[in-house]
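Standup, Tuesday
Yesterday: got the pipeline producing structure tokens again.
Today: sanity-check two examples.
Blockers: none.

Example 1:
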Amino acid sequence: LILIAITSILSSILIFQIVSLATKNKLYATLSLLIFIAWGIFSINFNSPIVFSLTFGLLMSFLFLYFSKTEKIRYLFLAGISAFIAVIFYKYLFFLILIPPLVFIAFLPKGKILNLLTFSYGYIWGFILFAVYLLGSNSFPLFVNNFLLLKNFNLYLGTVSFQTLILFFIPLLLTLLSAFILLKRQKFHLFYLPSFAAIFSFSIIPNFKNLDYLYMAVSLSGITLSILLRFSANSTVKTICIISSALLVLAGAIIMYGYN
């Protein structure tokens, strides 16, 4: 539990830093942090590797933003290592975790090949170091068997509650809207942030009926809402986003902490 708490604190710091760098607005960063906390990152009642995976996924996103700010290529190398670690902790991310980096690098104005190779180099080094550890501890076959053993899950919507569907589609809707705004405003260097929120939502489908996983997906909604607040030129959209943010914080606090 102590490790989960530390990881949750790190994730909270990363959420704040990511939104601060992306929007250059501390108020939006604080709002995103409140949504993240309200939806239960500190009340997760299971010791799941997805908590660690989320932290390293957020670290990858932060390193991309820091690379955009500094243009120091070592941050792409570290982002590659972070992406690999995220997959190790939550196997359902698998190749999905590679979508945000590809989107990020595709929209870079220069050095696409070098940057892609640097990220890949970090990802491969993460794999090599982990493989050495597994071989040294004689746990390589066991890990491979467990990693490749995917759960059977039923996507028949008739077996899924209305609450579950709402919690699943809210983050996806916000992701689509924020992606549209970024494309419209030509903020291509930030387009990977909605894609990160989207792939995390899709990765929880194998655990679709576990509300804790859905709550974690909703907790990332602050990132996409902050993008809408920062880059939308429509005052009505901004007002709706502010109200939605307040409602998300209130609803999360009631659902996650109100029953205790």
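Example 2:
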Amino acid sequence: LDRARVAGLALAGVVVPVRYGDGILTAAPFEASFYGGRLSGRVAVHTRAPVAFEGALTATGVSLDLLRGDVAPTLEVRGTASAHVDFESPTGDFADLFARGTVTVCDGDLGEIPPIATLPALFGSLSPAARKPRFHRAELEFRIEHERLTADRLVLAGPLFEMEGQGVYDFAGTVDVTLAPQFLKSLLLPGALLVPGFGDLLGLLREDPFYVVRIRGPIATATPVLDPFPFLGPRHAAPESVPVPFSATTSRRIPRWFR
């Protein structure tokens, strides 16, 4: 295929070998150009009861500039992204989707992504004379189940400091994220956390027992709040859950994307 759209995303130069046997429709391995990078993977659809689908996708060298221009023109974001995700649905329904994957962004400017865009304002309120942080790199380890995305590990980094966190985003549009920035070390020793060796030593002196940054609410309007002494109250960390097994009483239809 010269050009195609899947779930609203543009693909070009699509190569999709398709096979069918024993009730399983398989597209593997497929490859396509994807917003300046490459997308590859495999998908298998079980067309007999129990109906189900499974697969894996890998994207490399994706330009966030090109992606933003196609799906979110008003969002100011730059960088190069890579991602990998393994997924399955034991019923063939996307409401029962379970997925696990990683996303990495480098050489970017992520300051306009809500609610990331509000973090520099919080940092500036703590020290008005300090430079506002810009986030050039992001790492995400996630899983999707029960129609929500759980970030087991989130890293935001820039020229001044690096912060880690975790949280939950539900598909209704609300977010609950807890971040553990190292503001004090970053203010007193700007950039020191990024120095090999010395940064690892400073990283042992954790500040999150004294405060964390919590972002909660609708993703478009959620604002960060400095939460002191979080051990005195409940932490809103990402809940543990058991992966959805790949067997169940199922429906008898093929997912609409594969009809």
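Quick observation on example 2: DSSP finds four helices and 14 strands in the chain. The longest strand covers residues 52-63.
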